[in-house]
Amino acid sequence: MAFVDGQFPGPLIEANQGDNVEVVVTNGMPMNTTIHFHGITQIGTPWSDGVPGLTQRYIQPGKSFTHKWKADQYGSYWYHAHSRGQIDDGLYGPILINGKGQENCWSCTKINQLTTGIQRVFLQRDGDNQLTDKGCLPARSVAAGLSPGLQVNLSAIPADIFDNCKPTNGELAVIQVTQDPTGIVSIDEHPMYVYAVDGGYIQPQLVQAISVANGDRYSVLIKADRAGDFAIRVASAAMPQLMSGMATMRVQAANSSSPTRVVTRGDDYGDDEDGGETGGKQKLRIQQAPPVPAPTQPAVSPTSTPYINDAGAAASRNTFKLSMRHDGAAYKWALNGTIYPASADEAPTPILFGPPQTKDENDVTISTQNNTWIDLVFESAIFPMPPHPVHKHGTHMYLIGQGQGNFTWNSVAKAAPARPQSFNLQNPPKRDTFQSLVAVGQPAWIAVRYHSSDPGPWLMHCHIQAHLEGGMAMVIQDGVDAWPQVPSEYLEMS
């Protein structure tokens, strides 16, 4: 196991939107490492993205590296190792960026972590072991510490002074970090209002379950209007269905110190990964999760730009078709026909530290101009092909199209009018990780669009660690005409 500050998962990094964040990573392990901040766009700070051989050198044992970036975004993210499968050893933790004007109440776990020594003395006197659900010392614990002879009438204290939280909508962030098959998350007897995906607000959806692929993040609200213990379940979309243990959501009754009942009933969700009615449960349809604020361009035109909320939007300038495949050997994968070499991590001079690579548009590197719109078409041309959660570092992407069969056009501009039912150019979902379609019996494809607005070399890869280590990755050099100048302090870090 790998621990961060002595714990697993690693501690929460919490910031407010607009904060300048500084994270010092000290490598106490006997092997090299780096840390990536998943979903953080790193606008103007590509040297803090955490990819060895690309944006920095390895952090050697006993050495430190200081990441500096601005929290321009809001929502749920996570950090994890980006070196030799260390993420599977547990080297990861959550990131929460509070939106402007937002205030988050601490959880009971957080309250107990901050319980002071003197508070614990009072708690132990009465046999209690934690603060109330309002973060207060129980009245009886305070009374137990008073001088003998003092008269105390605990019954005269209103029940809601020290504890008894009122029924409310509770906030929950779901982050998928495992390398297991797609998980299906649910809470017994509690529907969930999904209001954010990969850190960005969406038109809210009321669902019974969420299909969560590797790297995904979902923010949900739950109405805590019934007392009891309710299981938070993670079922697999494939066999074996139960992937791990279960958590418990505990809702305390208004006038009780313990839940009134325990619910242990489970649910069967089947293996439908597209969402919709499965096993009687309504799952989130990501294709119907437009971002908020939604693009307002009404026309569906291959030359229109529906994303007017993004500065500098213009018609897509380039379409790159990428062929996902096996490479003729077990555990070898390719994002565009060629294996990304593991030796790239060991490069003595990261790509960012020099001029852009001159060999453009080969199988493992493509280059773009700054302030242009780029279309990427991922083709599952060899079948059977499982779904791959493809993650792009840096700027996020819009899912603008998907379909079965071969993508026979050389651009989205030509494909959209030919197959309008396969494209959404009005209010496409925006994410940093998309799952490719399963190819069984015939090829399949998805098309994404992003704005090249943050110059630098960005890794794009399958987020299943075994596939990444097997070569399923490539480099996108965005903004080669506006290549960033690396600060001297980062040139010297190792």
Automatic annotation (TrEMBL):
Domain Plastocyanin-like intervals: 2-100, 169-247, 357-478
Region: Disordered, residue numbers: 254-301
UniProt keyword terms in alphabetical order: Copper, Glycoprotein, Metal-binding, Oxidoreductase, Signal
SUPFAM superfamilies attached to this UniProt entry: Cupredoxins (SSF49503)
Family annotation (CDD domains): CuRO_1_Abr2_like (cd13850), CuRO_2_Abr2_like (cd13876), CuRO_3_Abr2_like (cd13898)
GO function terms (MF aspect): copper ion binding; oxidoreductase activity
Pfam family, one: Cu-oxidase
Similarity annotation: Belongs to the multicopper oxidase family.
Protein name per UniProt: Laccase-1
Lineage of origin: Eukaryota, Fungi, Dikarya, Ascomycota, Pezizomycotina
